[in-house]
Structures are given as structure tokens and as C-alpha cells.
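Problem 12. The chain below contains 450 residues. Write out its predicted structure in C-alpha cell notation.
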Amino acid sequence: MAGGGAPGLLPLLLLLLSAAAIIPRGDGQNLVTEDVTVVEGDVATISCRVKNSDDSVIQLLNPNRQTIYFRDFRPLKDSRFQLVNFSNSELRVSLTNVSISDEGRYFCQLYTDPPQEIYTTITVLVPPRNLVIDIEKETAVEGEEIELNCTAMASRPATTIRWFKGNKELTGKSEVERWSDMYTVTSQLLLKVGREDDGVPVICLVDHPAVKDLQTQRYLEVMYKPQVRVSQNYPLQGLTREGEPLELTCTAFGKPQPTDMRWLRVDDEMPQHVVVSGSNLLISNLNKTDNGTYRCEASNAVGKSHADYMLFVYDPPTTIPPPTTTTTTTTTIPTTITDTTATTEPAVHGFTQLPNSAEELDYGDLSDSRAGEEGAIRSVDHAVVGGVVAVVVFAMLCLLIILGRYFARHKGTYFTHEAKGADDAADADTAIINAEGGQNNSEEKKEYFI
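Solution.
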């Protein structure tokens, strides 16, 4: 039965197959199979399995009800079908180089009583044949809106197209056309470009079950007008002062690269002593007549741009010579009092160090420099005034002490020798006569003042 030497059995087989073709699909209680999805050109494997085998005959039929395999015998003359496994419980067949024409229902039959039948479906996937991005303009100008179209041809099922600009996903509008069993999808993207988009890739990515990571990309080329910047070369930092030099440099970037670059003075003529060399501007000796706005202009095929530099010339720096020695002020007030020693108060010291020159101040802020000078002068004035006040107060205190001691010594009772010897007299007349200061002794009366 397995060979081709029993031609008499072929009509019997065909009769059985015809009878099986009209058998309605049963419950398939004893048969198991699965649907198959395969990419065009790959291999599909069909398996008919029996749960509880009773040695019944298993056969596999194609969508046209032609027998592919009857047990391990292949009546259909198609070499793409190959027997993978045959046993009482399974019939497994492979189909190589699958095409769209192979899609459909395949039947597994089991000759039991009553016969059983179950089907499996082969689905063929077709990836897009081509993926192409068409761009409206190869070179765009900043600010323009351009149109891009991505087309995925001849796929099955229809593809889903996604757009990306760099890492950012964008939204396009898709249209689907069907040709026979194939689908062609076109997605349109409208994109307003700027200078930041120059050189950025626009990616068309396909979502399809038959393929992974299928994408194509185009790099944007955007032209834009110059971007201009003015930088100060000298002085590197700080103020622009009278008598000092100034050097400026103008840089410009654009697409195409700017070819025309020039310096001018806004609302006034350029001073004659200003030297312009290409992108550089030099003023060797600044003065206040140079104050104003200096502009650098650059242009290319797209347009013109400029950058401004506002010049303000400050006064030249003033130099204050540093003090050579430390200034010390000592005040001593001697006070002499009777029977006392002179006293000396401690000296009052004042030291003020002014800055050596205006350059020692903050070179970047003129107002802070002037404020520092004024603060130093104020501190000197306050020290002098404080010293004078201290001396005056001290002198007044010393004067009060001297006056107090003087009045204290001249206050009280004055004693003389006129009544000496009258203390023991019996009466007043006798006292007067006996008094040491009486008339008899008047020539001896003396008065002492202490």
C-alpha cells in the first residue's frame, strides 16, 4: 500500500476520497490541529494528531479536496509537500516555499465510525516589496513647509506606517490601495522645517507581522540665514576706559556660509581712527566720542542678520599712591595738682590704609569703585572727629577735678592767735587784757594763712 506497485487500489482510494468529501465536518473529538501563519517563501508545517489512536487511517487534503497524504503515501504530485512524521497518532507534513496560492483551509480526516474531520487554516503573510520616501524638495529654506511621502508596496495584510524626526514621533496621513490580494499603503507627512532640522534624519518605519525593523530614512537639508555673534577680545573683562584699546570679533554661521560681512556704526558715521580688518574691529585709543552702537552684518543667499555691540567709554583710572608708613596719633594731657603727681591718659591710635590705585578696586564695576573711595574718605573723617571729641571730653574732666579740689581746700573755719591766753580768765575784761593778742602784745600779733 505504501508503494506504487498496487495500481488497482488507486480507484478504491479515489472512491473513498470522494465519499469523504461529502462527509460533513464532525466534532473532531479525536482529532487535533492548529492554524498556521507563515511568511511568503518560508516553510509551513501541518499536523494532524489523534488523541486516542485506534489505528484508524489519517489523511490530509488541500483546499481543493485533493489528497496530499493518505497515511504515508502522497498521491498529489507536488514535491513541495514532504512527510515529516507518520505514526498511528500523527501525520505531520511540511510545505516549502509557501506562496499566496497555498493559502486556505487544509482538512485532516480520520476514518472511524463515523468518520471525523477537522480543518486548519494556512495564512500567508507578504512583507512590503519596497519602502520608499519621496521628498518634495531636496533642499528647503527655514520656515518652509515641505511634503514627504512614504510608500510600502505589495504587502499582505496592509502595513501601518509611522514617522519619526530624530527620536520624536510625528503623525502622518495614510491611504490604502488594494491590488488583487495585495495592499499598497502611502503615508503623507507635512513638516515645517527650521535651521535646527538641518542634517536630522526623517524615518519611515513599517509595522507589519511579516517583518521587523523595516525602515528607510532621508536626511533633511535646510538652508538658513546667518546667525551672528559679536565677542570682545580686549579687554577680556571689565570696563572700556578712555585711552585703552578695544578689539571686537564678529562670527557668523549660516547655510550657505556667509560671504559678505561688514561693520557699521548705528545712527552715526564710523570714527576715522577705527580700523576694520575682515571680521575684526579695532580702536587703539578709546575716547568718549566713540560711544555708540556698533553693528556687524552678515548675509548669504537666504537673507541678512546682524548683531550689535553697545560701547560706553568710562573715565580713565586714577592712581592713589600707597602710604609709606603707618600713621599713629598720640595725645597726652599733663595735669599738675598740689601735692599730687602728673597722670597721662593712654594714646588714641588711628590707622587708615587707602587703596593704592583705582585698579585695586573692582575693575568690572565703576559704581562700586567710587563707592569704595567715598567710604574710605568717610572712615578717615569719622576717626579724626572721634579723636578730637575724646580729647575735649578728657580735658573737661581734668578741669572739673582741679576745680573741685581747690574749693574743697578753702572751705571751713579760719583760726588766729588773737585769743591765745584768754581761756583761763575770770571775766571778759581780764580775758581781753590777758589775751595774747591784746593791746599789750599787738606788735607781736601775726596771722598765718595756710
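Discussion. The first strand starts at residue 31 and ends at 32. Students who got a different answer should revisit the alignment rule from Section 12.3.
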